Structures are given as structure tokens and as C-alpha cells.
Structure prediction request, 125 residues.
Amino acid sequence: MVKKILRKEIRKRKHRLLREKKNIFGTAEKPRLSVCKTLKHIYAQIINDNEGRTLVHVSSLSPEVKASISSPKRNIKTAEIIGKLIAQKAREKGIEKVVFDRGGFRYHGIIKAVADKAREGGLIF
Prediction:
């Protein structure tokens, strides 16, 4: 009997394996930039794993993002806006270096757009 594994379960397993490795862990000096996407929205947050605290967060539900997009779609344009905003808010808090956590998603499309715009905004990873 073949066991059917859902795509969501595979992504969660990859995410758990990546997080178990010690190279994706946010500290006070170098917090973790975590990006998550759902069918409708995109979320990005900068996390200090030592304290278990979110330092900065932006999503497609944020008022700043909603004001700058015409339709509430999850697309690359929205991802670029989120990348710029997360970098801007991080720089205001004095965060320059981060560890990028793609959350088990492939590094292309929306995830890549957030990462590229965050780099352009001044984050180093």
C-alpha cells in the first residue's frame, strides 16, 4: 500500500530538518529572517531565537502593504514590497545582518523576490 504524502507535509518536514541544523538560528547579533507564504498571503518576520521574540514583522495584511498594492493578491509585486518594508523596519531597529530562513519553500518566485528586495534595502545575508 502506497502512503500518500501531501505537499504541505513535505514542506514542513524540510523546514524541520533545516531548523534542526545549527546554521539557521537567530541570535541577538544576527537574527533570523523567516519568510512564509500561504495560498492568499505572504509573511516575513525577523526573529531572535535566543529570546523567542519577534523583532520586526510585515505581511500582505499590514496596512502599509495594503495601501501600496491595488489588489490583495499574493504575487511577486507584493513580495517585493514586503521585502523593502522588512528591510526598512529592520534598519530602523538597528538590524543589519540576518540569517535567511526560507521555511522549506523553494528559493524562487515569491521567496526570491522577498530576499532580493531585502538585500537591496540593506540587509546582509
